[in-house]
Amino acid sequence: MTTNSDISLQLQTLPQLPGVYQYFDKDQKLLYVGKAKNLKKRVASYFNKTHDNARLNVLVRKIVVIKHIVVKTETDALLLENNLIKNLQPRYNILLRDDKTYPWICIKNERFPRVFSTRNFIKDGSEYFGPYTSGRTLHTLLDLIRELYPLRNCNYDLSVQNIKNEKYKVCLEYHIGNCLGPCEAHETEEEYLRKIQHIRQLLKGNFKENLKEFKQLMLQYASEMKFEEAQAVKEKMQILENYQAKSTIVNPKITNVDVFSIVSDETMAYINFLQIAHGAVIRSHTLELKKRLNETDDELLVLGIVEIRERFKLLTKEVIVPFEVDLGEKISVTVPKLGDKKQLLELSERNARYYRLDQLKQIKIVDPDRHTNRVMAQMKSDLRLNKEPRHIECFDNSNIQGTNPVAACVVFKDGKPSKKDYRHFNIKTVIGPDDFASMEEVVFRRYRRLLDEGEPLPDLIIIDGGKGQLGAALKSLDILGLRGKIAIIGIAKRLEELFYPGDSIPLYLDKKSETLKIIQHLRNEAHRFGITFHRNQRSKNAIDSGLTTIPGIGPKTMEKLMIQFKSIKRLGETPEEEIVKLVGKSKAEKVMSYFKNS
Question: Taking residues 198-202, what's their average pLDDT?
Answer without folding.
Answer: 82
